[in-house]
Amino acid sequence: MSKSSEERIVKSYCRGCHGGCGVLVRVKDDRIVNIEGDPKFPTNRGSMCSKGLAAKQLVYHPDRITRPLKRVGNKGEGKWQPISWDEALDTIAGKLRQVKAENGAESIVLGYGTGRNYESFLYRFANLLGTPNVLTAGHECYGSRIAATAITCGKLPVSDYANNPACVMVWGNNVLWTNPDEQIGVSLSRALSNGAKLIVVDPRLTFLAGKADIWLQLRPGTDTALAFGMANVIINEKLYDKPFVDNYVYGWDKFVERVQEYPLDRVEKITWVPAETIRNAARLYAQSKPACIQWGVAIEQNINSIDNNRILTDLMAITGNLDVPGGSVFFVPPKIRTISEFAGHQYLPKEQANKRLGGSTYRLANRIAVLTPKAVWDAIFTNEPYPVKAMMLHGTNPVITRANSREVYRALHMVDFLVVTDFFLTPTAELADIVLPAATWLEFDDIGDYMFRHGYISARKKVVQIGECWSDHKIFSELGKRLGQGDFWRKDVEGDLDYILEPSGLTWKQFSEIGYLQGQMEYRKHEKKGFSTPTKKVEFYSTILEELGYDPLPRYQETPETPVSRPEMSEQYPYILITGARIPVFFHSEYRMIPWLREIHPDPIVEIHPVTAKQHGIKDGDWVFIESPRGKVKQRAKLTTGINPGVVAAQHGWWFPEIKNPGHGWDISNINILTDNDPAGYDPMMGATNLRVLLCRIYPAGEAL
Ligand SMILES: Nc1nc2c(c(=O)[nH]1)N[C@H]1C(S)=C(S)[C@@H](COP(=O)(O)OP(=O)(O)OC[C@H]3O[C@@H](n4cnc5c(=O)[nH]c(N)nc54)[C@H](O)[C@@H]3O)O[C@H]1N2
Ligand SMILES: Nc1nc2c(c(=O)[nH]1)N[C@H]1C(S)=C(S)[C@@H](COP(=O)(O)OP(=O)(O)OC[C@H]3O[C@@H](n4cnc5c(=O)[nH]c(N)nc54)[C@H](O)[C@@H]3O)O[C@H]1N2
Ligand code: SF4
Ligand SMILES: [Mo]
Hints:
By secondary structure, the protein is an alpha/beta fold. 32% of the residues lie in helices and 17% in strands.
């Protein structure tokens, strides 16, 4: 980076959310002056959202940690001393070596939150260290989609908007605001402009629901039953693709039998959606060719997590929409080393893999190396099945983002040794022994693989250096070298990027000049080689689940905390609480300190129906308490008729960086104080925590924050 007063433009790839948008970064005198969408980039074609546009304020934020810090006072007291990278890494390496020698490598837990580009580096480090315990959000986010589709049709199907779907069914997803997993919202907008019909399944009247041809306002948590209702219509009205079913479906007869358990009058009672609306939606989806299903995380955060994904995959299959242009497809990614290949799971000895916390309970999650957080907290509290002595968390803020925050707080306070790598001193980082300063996406070179399942990889380039911040990739590589992993890491991260790119025939330097690579798409791959399942068919009846000891067919279960399952509790806590519907300007607990973004959305918001609000003397904009048996928090009421009077929708991710004590107000508005992490409510296959369907009461909070 030569110092120059000429403005230059660096083409890069935003990572303000999961990623997805090509950007042009304008730089002058080695400072970022502006970030704008790259009109030539194939996915976003110039568009950007507020988070990406505000990234400059993230990079130059005065509260950034720019040197490694060591705790000097008591845990959580907020007293820090800057130290050198050498001292930080030597201390961490020494402690990890000691825990490994005394307790075994499994007593070290590595962790990150939502999917991040360094995850393959983190897994590689963990596998080489010998710990099977990598804590992610996978149990309640995306992991279910990966695991459920892997056992059903071999791979995760993705909507193919570029090939003119005639109908899109958006299910528990707010893609225009969230740009989630391998999709960006503008591509759906383009499909709708090209005339695609729209079905939306959501308990709230989102922008998309308002545009929909059919909106199914279901009772939260009843998605599996609703999807069974649609399957019932499609099968009994013979709207399904018979040749596809005959050739490519395993377990059809048993599935049809199960579907008959869900006649529309029963489904209407369970879901609150009128039978006629379900029928119309099923017909529209089945009769539009091609059609795709855009699914989201809402259906994964409850007891039906895996079966929600399975039954939706079954809907894609019976309508003949799998891997056809404009349907739900398996894009072909460019030829590079995959996350899994780089992670090197073969380096983890089998006897270590068998020790994964909760692995024998959540056996499907275990297949994809996912564990559930409570197993870690319990091991810290009880030393059972073995102690957890050290944790290294990269890019996650579990005090705010994990269910039952008070328990999370206690566990992180108690664990012997905690390292947190972040941009800021979050409520989680404040509990650490050592905090490492992470570089943002504008501060290092990287292969952006967010759209990998959509067939793309893109180059993200270092634009500036801030203080002594390092990329997480570099931290794993350098720490790995101190722990005897030297043979497995290249001299520097560029060498590792070269290694990942090797199958494409490109080096990092060459790739970064090209900007992105797209795989060569081929549709209907099953016609040549079947589906990647044990029977080579789409397994409606799962042979893998049968082997693991679960019900091989999907089924609907009532979630554990509803007016139906807990009628006596609902007298005290009458409303169904959904948490976490995303808003455009924040990413989970991130960005509350970014001035442009906070100005757009200053306070936490809970959506309440006006009739319900009136009963409690709540007016629009009032601060209200939301309370469950686990605790209470404050948010501001937004009155809307776009929600059922029996349902309340609260935001997640709230803490207040402007509160300068070390807690930063983590327990004021943080909705995860109310969520439950009792395993009785988990998906039995995945360990998914129930975040979307809880019971609560609401009442005016009186004073402001
Ligand atoms: N109640 C409720 N809770 C939820 C959800 C919900 O819907 N409702 N959703 C859940 C879901 S789906 C998910 S995925 C999780 C997400 O949970 P988390 O991943 O824990 O959430 P974030 O707030 O994104 O935490 C990221 C932290 O990482 C830091 N960070 C960002 N980028 C980097 C980086 O590149 N390197 C490093 N080292 N740090 C970085 C940020 O500053 C921030 O402090 O939350 C879950 N929690
Ligand atoms: N701006 C922003 N973007 C993000 C994130 C963020 O925090 N902020 N987080 C990222 C992450 S990690 C994820 S996982 C994705 C998630 O992205 P999405 O899947 O779009 O997640 P949400 O907005 O939480 O939920 C989508 C919709 O589900 C509805 N919903 C709630 N309960 C139910 C239910 O029981 N059934 C059905 N059918 N719908 C329900 C909500 O009303 C909401 O409109 O977003 C990613 N993108
Ligand atoms: S949608 Fe995500 S990748 Fe695109 S500009 Fe916004 S934050 Fe960046
Ligand atoms: Mo997520």
